[in-house]
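Example 5.3 — High mobility group B protein 2-like isoform X1
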Amino acid sequence: MKGGKSKADSRNPDSKLSVKKRKQKREKKAKDPNKPKRPPSAFFVFMEEFRKQFKEENPNNKLVAVVGKAAGDKWKSFTDEEKAPYVAKAEKRKQDYERQMQAYNRRLEGGHGEEGSDKSKSEVNDDDEEGSGEEEEDDE
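Solution (predicted structure tokens):
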């Protein structure tokens, strides 16, 4: 070829666009804001403490990558005994998460029970008070 478009490119100019259209049609599921967040791994538990320490030692550093790189190097140099407290904390958070997920799933299965309601108690009381006032006059 002499630097021009290939025949395949000139035949279907929209072929690349059609692929993009297919990807755009696919919608993400809406995330439930009440769903508990997944627990951090042992490394991320370590990172929470390391970030504070690193920030005190290097107050002028603004780069997240530098902190992550330093933390990763330190984590790799740890022995299993040095990682143990972080692993224990991560395990405890995982157990808490599993309990929260069980409660969350029970609320989803149970429907709108008192525990599963998205409304706070004050909002529930507000709804009850509204029913006894002006709204009844409108219904008549």
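Remark. The mean pLDDT is 76.
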